[in-house]
Every structure is written in C-alpha cells, then in structure tokens.
Design goal:
53% of the residues lie in helices and 0% in strands. With 79 residues, the chain is mainly α. Helix 1 packs antiparallel against helix 2 and helix 3 runs antiparallel to helix 4. The longest helix is centred in the first third of the chain and has 14 residues.
Length: 79
C-alpha cells in the first residue's frame, strides 16, 4: 500500500518537525485510518519506529491519536 510507505517516510525523515508530521498524518489518517496501526515490511508500526527513532514528540502524538501500544513486532517482543 503506497500510503503506508509515504506515511513512514513522512514520520521518519529526520528533519521533519512535529507540525509537518501532523499535517501529513492527518490527511493520510482521514482517508486510511488503519495506517495508524499498520505494520511495514519489517512488521513495525509507526509507534515502533517513533520509539526507535527516539522521537518522544511523535510517540506522544501517535498515542493521542490512538496508536496501539501493545502491538508485537516481528521478534514477538512488546513494543
């Protein structure tokens, strides 16, 4: 799904501000609400990637939007 790739690129491009991320995500989530908890080819969610990237601001935003915190990654470890 192209939207997933675009959404992950938006969130994890290093120089994107939280406001830029919010703008891009809002549009995507309106049309594809399942993107919030979808997994990429590495079986990681947006929340997983935000945690890995140490983007506390993005983590907080995703949680406010309803991101699932008890999703499992490919290693079956809690994310």
């Amino acid at each position: 799904m192209k939207e997933i790739v675009d959404t992950y690129a938006l969130v994890f491009k290093e120089n994107n501000t939280l406001d830029e991320i919010k703008l891009g995500l809002e549009d995507n989530l309106k049309n594809f609400p399942e993107l919030l908890n979808s997994k990429d080819s590495d079986r990681k969610t947006l929340l997983s990637h935000a945690i890995i990237a140490n983007r506390k601001d993005v983590v907080e935003y995703l949680l406010e939007k309803g991101a699932v915190i008890d999703s499992l990654d490919i290693a079956r470890a809690d994310v």
